[in-house]
Amino acid sequence: MAESLLITNIGELMTQDPGRGRDTVLRDAAVVLEGERISWLGPAAAAPAADAVTDAGGRCVLPGWVDSHTHLVFAGDRTEEFEARMAGRSYQAGGIAVTVAATRAAADYDLTRLLLARAAEAAAGGTTYLETKTGYGLDVEQEARIARIASTVADQVTFLGAHLVPAGLDADEYTELVCGGMLAAVRPYVQWADVFCERGASTAEQCRRVLAACREAGLGLRVHGNQLGEGPGVALAVEFGAASVDHLNYLSDADVGLLAGSWAGWDADSGSGRRGTVATCLPACDLSTRQPLAPARRLLDARVEIALASNCNPGTSYTSSMNYCVATAVLQMGLSVHEAVRAATYGGALALGVHTGRDADGERAVGSVAVGHRADLHLLNAPSATHLAYRPGMPLTAAVWRAGERGA
Ligand SMILES: N=CN[C@@H](CCC(=O)O)C(=O)O
Ligand SMILES: [Zn+2]
Questions:
Q1: Which residues contact 70 (CB under 8 A, 6 or more apart)?
Q2: Cα(115) to centroid of ligand 2, in Å?
Q3: N or C: the chain end with fewer CB closer than 10 Å?
Q4: What remark does the entry make about the cofactor (predicted)?
Q5: What interhelical angle do 140-151 and 108-124 show, nearest 10?
Q6: pTM for this structure?
Q7: H-helix or E-strand spanning residue 281
Q8: What is the pLDDT of residues 84-102, one digit of tens each?
Q9: HSE-CB for 58 with a 13 A CA cutoff
Q10: Residue 231, Cα to own-chain centre: how many angstroms?
């Protein structure tokens, strides 16, 4: 039998498990980990014996963060572009080309080393489940290389060949390549496909072709949409039944209506029913690009399931700190602490299709604390999750367990 660990004397255990009804936050609680899974949780006074014991000292335990949107495989940085933006220039999709040039020039060893260091930074900040994307290669060989390297580190990988049309190429010919040879080359390494549906990136028609080809190839879908202005991204995502649409800085009433409609068959209170398209908000990106914050409150009030993610990348959001994203969502987007933590854990898991699991074949759910789920836990250096927003920027991550292994 696997080694067991009892984490006891937990002041606040925020499970984010919709299966618990109203009882999602436990006080004076304990959790037992057995190998990679959670085998028990409940009142500390009733906890079973275990091989080892950790005393949480009255502090708070959360599910590990699920970061459902990052771009971590890249070389170089874009400090000058950031400085220009802080001096008043607006973000343009064309900046992606700077990172593509630096990434293409980097050796496999260096890209892997950079990716490992970024994943370690994320883990040290409480992230236990990580998605990352291709999109800084933009030719067949480079996209396949990035996908392969990403798949050695990230939990899930997304193909983003339709990030930018490289200079000098015809947009329609490039789209054909993305749907053909490039898709075939990345396919062994990826679970998802994404498109950047925006002025200066890809048109709705080009995105539609990529989404259709990737769906045909068996990939799940997501969309970067409505980041720089109102546009077709949300409608396209809902039309294709995408798992998420991300950014959402400029939403019309019709966009909110479409997203809400996609969740009409879902019961958020029990986490059951027919799921829709998750609205993924990226607060760190919104601040770094000085875009209006995504309307997370409005989306929640319309009963849309939302996720919070870091969007860590060198152009628009060079941070993987989910603590920072959660604090911003509370302080500036009008979310309660519980809603923000839910979006950064259960919401991210919904966006990646891992909110439920199949224990029998070892595919464990993440993003909530429940028996049978993967033992991904985040111990805060604070008595409650409220401190994430009350003490923003402070080093509140005390310990992390990923699949039962102690990290930070
Ligand atoms: N918006 C598109 N892609 C990234 C930014 C990429 C870049 O500028 O390097 C994003 O999610 O913000
Ligand atoms: Zn992105």
A1: 122, 130, 131, 132, 133, 154, 309, 310, 311, 312, 313, 320
A2: 16
A3: N
A4: Binds 1 zinc or iron ion per subunit.
A5: 40
A6: 0.98
A7: strand 278-281
A8: 999 999 998 889 999 999 9
A9: 1
A10: 22
Domain that includes residue 320, residue range: 65-351
**Annotated binding-site residue? 227:** yes
Tokens describing residue 110: 């260096």
CATH of the domain at 57: 2.30.40.10
From the CB of 321, is ligand 1 less than 6 Å away?
no
Q: Is 315 in the pocket of ligand 1 (CB under 6 A)?
A: yes
For the chain, what percent of residues have pLDDT higher than 70?
A: 100
Q: Is 332 annotated as a binding residue?
A: no
**255-313 pLDDT, tens digit each:** 999 999 999 999 998 999 999 999 999 999 999 999 999 999 999 999 999 999 999 99
Residue 384 within a domain: yes
Shared domain for 382 and 319, answered yes or no, is no
Q: Name which of 307, 250, 297 is nearest 277 in CA terms.
A: 307
Residue-wise pLDDT for 170-212, tens only, equals 999 999 999 999 999 999 999 999 999 998 899 999 999 999 9
Q: Are residues 145 and 281 in the same domain?
A: yes
Q: Estimate the crossing angle of helix 322-333 against helix 337-344, to 10 degrees.
A: 140
381 is in an annotated binding site: no
Is 135 found in the same domain as 44? no
Q: Which ligand is nearest to the CA of 284?
A: 1
pLDDT tens, residue by residue, 8-64: 999 999 999 999 988 899 999 999 999 999 999 999 999 999 999 999 999 999 999
- Helix axis angle, 140-151 relative to 96-105, nearest 10°? 80
Contact 389, 360 (CB under 8 A): no
Q: Is 361 within a domain?
A: no
**Which residue type, as a one-letter code, is found at position 174?**
Y
- N- to C-terminal Cα distance for the chain? 26
Contact 335, 371 (CB under 8 A): no
- In total, the chain counts a number of residues equal to 408
Q: What is the CATH number of the domain that holds 69?
A: 3.20.20.140
Rounded to the nearest angstrom, the distance between the alpha carbon of 132 and the centre of ligand 2 is 9
Strands 266-267 and 272-273: antiparallel
Say if residue 242's pLDDT is above 80.
yes
* Residue whose tokens read 């939302």: 306
